[in-house]
């Protein structure tokens, strides 16, 4: 029996990359998963691949009404949600002067406001069963900021770190745990078109001298979603190959 047997999970940004790795791991561990994204074609293909325990729903995480629809769909399909993984995120590598107000607000809307709306929408569902785990995916950049770090992304990921602690205290009396995961550099499709020499140089800055496989983050996320982490809440979990320790 998998560690997530009996869990009903909502995972955002689940059509590809790190989010898809989370979806696969959760289904493998026995969870029933509603995963969402704006990437409809890729989402439907993944749902077809994974079978009856995974369902894709197109979803804008910055839209409150969309969140209500996702929670209603989850309850109608699998029952009350007792796991939420706020994974959807946006990041553009621009400096302050080149970042437009529209770009800044869009990043905050998705990364920060989307996380808030997700926690707000799923809380009543979790309170029905007096049990839940919310995992907010932040970044190592919530601890340290690189010289070329985009301001909107950094601001949003620092915010998610603080929001997680606040929500953990608010929900603790309802049996709902809230933790944040802070990945470092991941070997995702975004790096496929990068110059291999640049990728190697980046890997050399990591104490473990390699990028992470998205599956390594998914193992941690699954642990936090499971009852194995039943006394962990309001805590930050780094999966960064030692980057933060090297400060």
Structure report:
This protein has one domain: 3-Layer(aba) Sandwich (Rossmann fold). Helix 4 links the parallel strand 4 and strand 5. The mean pLDDT is 92. It is built from seven helices and seven strands; from the N terminus they run E-H-E-H-E-H-E-H-E-H-E-H-H-E. It starts with 7 loop residues before the first strand and ends in an 8-residue tail after the last strand. With 247 residues, the chain is an alpha/beta fold. The chain is globular and about 50 Å long. Helix 4 runs parallel beside helix 5. The protein has a seven-stranded parallel sheet with strand order 3-2-1-4-5-6-7, sandwiched between helices.
Classify the fold: give the CATH topology: Rossmann fold
List segments where confidence is low: pLDDT < 50 over at least 5 consecutive residues: none
The domain tally reads: 1
SS-derived structural category? alpha/beta
CATH superfamily: NAD(P)-binding Rossmann-like Domain
Secondary-structure arrangement, i.e. CATH architecture = 3-Layer(aba) Sandwich
Counting DSSP H or I runs of 4 or more residues, the number of helices is: 7
Q: Spatial order of the strands in the main sheet?
A: 3-2-1-4-5-6-7
Q: Strand count, sense and closure of the main sheet? A: 7 strands, parallel
Name the CATH class: Alpha Beta
Radius of gyration: 17 Å
Helix and strand succession?
EHEHEHEHEHEHHE
* Helix content percent band: 40-55%
| Total E-strand runs | 7
Fraction in beta strands? 15-25%
Q: Could you tell me how far the N terminus lies from the C terminus, measured between alpha carbons in angstroms?
A: 40 Å
Overall spatial form: globular
Protein name: SDR family NAD(P)-dependent oxidoreductase
Family: Belongs to the short-chain dehydrogenases/reductases (SDR) family.
Pfam families: adh_short_C2
Keywords: Oxidoreductase
């Amino acid at each position: 029996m998998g560690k997530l047997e009996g869990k009903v999970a909502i995972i955002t940004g689940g059509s590809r990359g790190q989010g898809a790795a989370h979806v696969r791991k959760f289904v493998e561990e026995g969870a029933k998963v509603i995963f969402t994204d704006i990437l409809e074609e890729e989402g439907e293909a993944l749902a077809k691949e994974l079978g009856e325990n995974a369902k894709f729903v197109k979803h804008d995480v910055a839209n409150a009404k969309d969140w209500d629809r996702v929670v209603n769909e989850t309850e109608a399909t699998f029952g009350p949600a007792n796991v939420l993984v706020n994974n959807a995120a946006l990041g553009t590598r621009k400096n302050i002067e080149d970042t437009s107000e529209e770009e800044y607000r869009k990043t905050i809307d998705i990364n920060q406001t989307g996380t808030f709306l997700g926690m707000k929408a799923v809380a009543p569902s979790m309170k029905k069963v007096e049990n839940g785990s919310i995992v907010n995916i932040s970044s190592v950049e919530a601890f340290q900021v690189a010289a070329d770090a985009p301001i909107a992304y950094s601001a949003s990921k620092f915010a998610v770190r603080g929001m997680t602690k606040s929500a953990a205290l608010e929900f603790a009396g309802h049996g709902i745990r809230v933790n944040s995961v802070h990945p470092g550099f991941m070997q995702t499709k975004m790096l496929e078109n990068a110059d291999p020499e640049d990728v190697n140089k980046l890997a050399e800055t990591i104490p473990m001298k390699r990028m992470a496989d998205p599956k390594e983050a998914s193992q941690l996320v699954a642990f936090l979603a499971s009852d194995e982490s039943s006394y962990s809440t309001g805590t930050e979990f780094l999966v960064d190959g030692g980057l933060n320790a090297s400060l």
